[in-house]
Amino acid sequence: MNKILEKNLFQNRDHNHQACISEALDTANKICSAHEARFTPIRRRILELIWKSHEPVLAYDLLRILRREKDNTEPPTVYRSLDFLMEYNLIHKIESLNAYVGCSYAHRPHIGQFLICTECNQFVEIDSSKISKTILTEARQSGFEVASQTVEIYGQCPKCR
Ligand SMILES: [Zn+2]
Ligand SMILES: [Zn+2]
Q1: Residue 72 CA, ligand 1 centroid: distance in Å
Q2: What is the DSSP string of the chain?
Q3: Which of 43, 53, 124, 127 is positioned for an S-S bond with 9, CB 3.0–4.6 A?
């Protein structure tokens, strides 16, 4: 990916984020109805909370917010909703941070890669089939069968540099 595009992806985070959130919820709604899956209020609220944050979100923080809204929210409810949202590619887990992010490419099959700023924790998801194909090819040459890929790249975003 070239530098200009990378910069744009990070800058995109600044403008009208409310529109991004609405669009993400809308897309999720469409994807769920296409699969006849239930986009329940809790699933919707969790997706909204994840999108509201510009940083990867911990399950614990979601639970804390949800408990403020509804006293008896239990951790398994949150984890089940997170699993559901991941199953439909509406969110991804950043394994190294054990935190969740909203997916910008939910409408199409993809394997995302993440650029994560170590200063401000902002991130962008890139969708480079070149990277994922190279990983598959290299792994196959070693006789290795890939079950899943997690590519998390750390550095500094344009603002923090
Ligand atoms: Zn994605
Ligand atoms: Zn930064």
Answers
A1: 31
A2: --HHHHHHHHHTTTS-HHHHHHHHHHHHHHHHHHTT----HHHHHHHHHHHH-SS-EEHHHHHHHHHHHSTT--HHHHHHHHHHHHHTTSEEEETTTTEEEE-S-TTS----EEEEETTT--EEEE--HHHHHHHHHHHHHTT---S---EEEEE--TTT-
A3: 124
Query: Can you give the pTM of this predicted structure?
Result: 0.85
Pairing of strands 123-126, 113-117: antiparallel
Q: Which residues contact 79 (CB under 8 A, 6 or more apart)?
A: 59
Distance 155 CA to ligand 2 centre (A): 8
Domain positions in the chain are 3-155
Distance (angstroms) between ligand 1 centre and the Cα of 144 equals 24
Q: Tell me the pLDDT tens digit for each residue of 22-61.
A: 999 999 999 999 999 999 999 999 999 999 988 899 999 9
Which listed ligand is nearest to 123 at the C-alpha?
Answer: 2
Strands 57-58 and 99-102, by their bridges, are antiparallel
